[in-house]
Specification:
It comes from Ruminococcus bromii. By secondary structure, the chain is of the alpha/beta class. It folds into 2 domains: 203 residues, D-Maltodextrin-Binding Protein, domain 2 (3-Layer(aba) Sandwich), CATH 3.40.190.10; 145 residues, D-Maltodextrin-Binding Protein, domain 2 (3-Layer(aba) Sandwich). Helix content is 40%, strand content 15%. It contains 14 helices and 9 strands. Helix 1 packs antiparallel against helix 10 and helix 5 crosses helix 14.
């Protein structure tokens, strides 16, 4: 699928380059004088980069605008936050998750966007124009979104799971993986206990911790990136993870499949923002606008497997089979059962982390 769309896009982009430059707020042509730079700070492995016949988006942006991209990566929202808060490094575009965006807005760390420079904002799906973390839509342009679900090995799990309680299945003892981060692990336990993870208290954390203690003897291990090795090599039976990454695992092992819990799930999204330390705001807005060009958004989706919020890309460029995949693009009915992580108080979040560490240590 990546190969097909890269060929289509390469032809289309040659024909539409001039129009796209106009859409990027009047960016310089490739043979013009140097147009400056933009410092982009993104998650690792989170942009189409030319591998596997994909489009090299950074290279394409530099070619069209003559703006140099200085691109660096982080591994967690907290690493991003600490870098912005505690260093003298200047970044122009950052791509935090929903709960971290809330925190950054609360702490006055972001600049309001000039949407006159981001006309491609109009391409976004209505659901993703004013995010829960930015209800007035002043600071964010959604980058990608998805839900959390389960990946399971059909040779080990004979019946397709339909609830998070599959992660407590005693018949799979020693073959179950669990998130190695407190926020996601606690949220799954909370949903099974009928608790809204988006608005949890210390008492809610205690209930979730008790549920996770019940699970621990059944686990093979707590994982994050190790889930790829475990599941793609058929070393474990079932694990929770993020939709886009689960689809990548399935591509690499035909014995794997996805499961969407009827209990509901986490609707997560990352969004492009401009931090107050930015020294190149106009170039940052050109980059953000470029990322929401429908062809670029489609190419990024094809590489990442994470759903695009771009309606025009979805309508005109995304493969029909992908659009029919309910895990990548869940129905509105399913999304209405999902929660979005909020910026819980430091006190509750610290307590959540403390309890999770205790569970792992016991």
């Amino acid at each position: 699928m990546k190969r097909i769309i890269s060929i289509v896009l390469a032809s289309a982009m040659t024909a539409t380059c001039a129009a796209c430059l106009s859409g990027c707020g009047g960016g310089a042509s490739a043979d013009s004088a140097d147009a400056g730079e933009v410092n982009v700070y993104n998650w690792g492995e989170y942009i189409s980069n030319g591998e596997d016949d994909s489009l090299d988006i950074i290279e394409e942006f530099e070619k069209r605008t003559n703006i140099k991209v200085n691109y660096t990566t982080y591994e967690t929202n907290e690493e991003l936050y600490n870098m912005l808060k505690n260093s003298n490094v200047s970044y122009d575009v950052v791509i935090p998750s929903e709960y971290m965006i809330s925190r950054m807005i609360d702490e006055d760390m972001l600049l309001e966007l000039n949407f006159d420079n981001i006309p491609n904002y109009d391409n976004l799906m209505d659901r993703f124009k004013k995010l829960a973390c930015d209800p007035e839509g002043k600071y964010t342009v959604c980058y990608s979104w998805g839900v959390t679900g389960m990946v399971y090995d059909k040779t080990k799990v004979k019946t397709k799971p339909d609830s998070w309680d599959a992660l407590w299945n005693k018949d799979l003892s020693g073959q179950i993986l669990m998130f190695n981060n407190s926020r996601d692990a606690m949220a799954i336990a909370m949903q099974l206990e009928g608790i809204d993870p988006a608005n949890c208290t210390k008492k809610d954390v205690d209930k979730a911790a008790a549920k996770l203690k019940e699970q621990k003897p059944l686990l093979k291990k707590y994982v994050m990136d190790q889930v790829f090795t475990e599941m793609e090599n058929s070393q474990s039976a079932i694990a929770p993870y993020y939709a886009g990454d689960i689809m990548t695992m399935i591509d690499n092992n035909e014995d794997l499949d996805y499961a969407m819990p009827k209990d509901g799930s986490n609707l997560f999204y990352d969004a492009m923002c401009i931090p107050k330390c930015s020294k190149n705001k106009e170039n940052a807005e050109k980059f953000i606008n470029f990322m929401q060009d429908p062809e670029i958004a489609a190419a990024n989706f094809e590489y990442l497997n994470y759903a695009t919020p771009n309606q025009v890309a979805y309508d005109d460029y995304i493969d029909e089979d992908a659009k029919k995949n309910e895990f990548i693009f869940p129905s509105d009915e399913y999304l209405d059962k999902c929660y979005v992580f909020s910026n819980v108080s430091d006190e509750v979040y610290s307590y959540m982390q403390e309890q999770f560490v205790k569970i792992q240590a016991d």
